[in-house]
Write a structure and sequence with these properties.
One of its GO terms (molecular function) is kinase activity. InterPro entries: P-loop_NTPase. This is Uridine kinase family protein. The protein has 134 residues and is α+β, with helices and mostly antiparallel strands. The chain folds into 2 domains: 1-40, no CATH class; 47-134, P-loop containing nucleotide triphosphate hydrolases (Rossmann fold, 3-Layer(aba) Sandwich), CATH 3.40.50. It has 3 helices and 4 strands. It has helices at 2-19, 71-84, 89-110, and strands at 22-25, 30-33, 65-68, 116-119. Strands 1-2 form a two-stranded antiparallel ribbon. The protein has a two-stranded parallel sheet with strand order 3-4. A hairpin with a 4-residue loop joins strand 1 (22-25) and strand 2 (30-33). Helix 2 crosses helix 3. The relative contact order is 0.13.
Length: 134
């Protein structure tokens, strides 16, 4: 019942967004995307997941693109992210190994394929400092 309710809410919001404005979700700022905007990128790990509450989303997207990287590259990026946010090496590793990597496996193993998959790009494997992920 909860999944059906969430699905109806999501459908309603997507219809409203198509007619009106789409909020841009940014960790650092919030703004409204104007009605004149023709392309709205939607980003999220679970958007192509083949599970109730998620599987019907893809029909709302004109194009789907996935970024594919080796697990060790993903883990290195996640470790950098959590260390940059102040977690100790041990706490970051615990968070990455107990939460982030299992979630990543769920997405990789349980999602519909994207129309385009970008992988192995050197620019994607670099950190914010321009150095290759290790």
């Amino acid at each position: 019942m909860i999944d059906a309710c969430l699905d109806r809410i999501l459908e309603h919001l997507l219809r409203r967004l198509a007619r009106n404005n789409a909020p841009e979700i940014d960790r650092n700022a919030a703004r409204v995307i104007s009605r004149q905007t023709e392309i709205v990128p939607v980003e999220g790990n679970y958007l192509l997941l083949d599970r109730p509450g998620w599987r019907d989303l893809s029909r709302h997207f004109d194009l789907t693109i996935a970024l594919g990287e080796a697990p060790e590259v993903l883990r290195a990026r996640l470790m950098r992210r959590w260390r940059a946010l102040g977690l100790s090496e041990g706490d970051a590793a615990a968070k990455v190994d107990a939460n982030d990597m299992p979630n990543g496996r769920t997405v990789l193993q349980g999602s519909h394929p994207a129309q385009i998959t970008l992988s192995g790009s050197p620019s994607l494997a670099q950190g914010h400092d321009g150095q290759a992920a290790t």
